[in-house]
Amino acid sequence: MTDTENRATRYPLLSQPHIALQGTVDHDMYARFRQQLADAPAEGPLVIAISTLGGDPEVARLMGDELRLLRDYTGRETLFLGKVAVYSAGATFMATFPVDRRFLTRGTRIMIHERQMTASVDLSGPLKMQVANLKAKLHEIEESVRIEEEGFRDIIAGSHVTFEEVQKRASSNWYIEAEEARDLGLVLDLI
Q1: Which pTM was predicted?
Q2: Which residue from 32, 33, 107, 178 has the fewest beta carbons nearer than 10 Å?
């Protein structure tokens, strides 16, 4: 038996996720998540698997918050299993699980990056209104940066990665192979 086979047998629950999500993190994924959560057994550890190239970080935070509430109100254990690609909003979702409840399949990659924005500011009309428009856009950006930093702190909590390191590396799309993620303490183990 290889080390990988031995490792997989340590975590038999991970072989049959109760919730399996794939594709873009969006409102359709959220609906699938809610349905699978409703269909899952009411007791025992809950395994959630995801494979995604990214999507809406707020939907990822919403799904994670629902699982946090489940843990807080019922004490139920939730386990994260990343498969193949856990990019962008997928990493945001992973960050909502404690490090010692995160797993990846061999060959999976995580990608962490800064939040993105594409916007135009139309300056047309009374000058005082332009000041208000610019302040509103600036506040939106500042709040998005705060949310991004909260997410960075969540994903590295309990790991060997410093906040400064994740900030620096996320600026150029930080791809982390499964073995490196385990060695950095971002996940508990690989299967």
Answers
A1: 0.88
A2: 107
Q: List residues bridging with 90 in a β-sheet.
A: none
Neighbours of 156 (CB within 10 A): 21
Compute the distance between CA of residue 153 and CA of residue 149 in angstroms, rounded to an integer. Answer: 6
What is the tens place of the pLDDT at every residue in 82-106?
999 999 999 999 999 999 999 999 9
Distances (CA, A) of 123 to 26, 119, 130, 134: 32, 13, 6, 9
3-state secondary structure of 24: coil
Q: Which residues contact 158 (CB under 8 A, 6 or more apart)?
A: 98, 99, 100, 185
Task: Tell me what pLDDT residue 159 has.
Answer: 96
Instruction: Say if residue 127 is exposed, middle or buried (CB neighbours under 10 Å; 0-12, 13-18, 19+).
Output: exposed
Q: Are 110 and 82 in contact (CB under 8 A)?
A: yes
Q: List Cβ neighbours of 138 (8 Å cut-off, separation of 6 or more).
A: none
- What is the spatial distance between Cα 103 and Cα 85, in angstroms, rounded to a whole number? 13
DSSP line for 64-123: HHHHHHHHHHH---EEEEEEEEEETHHHHHHTTS-GGGEEE-TT-EEEE-----------
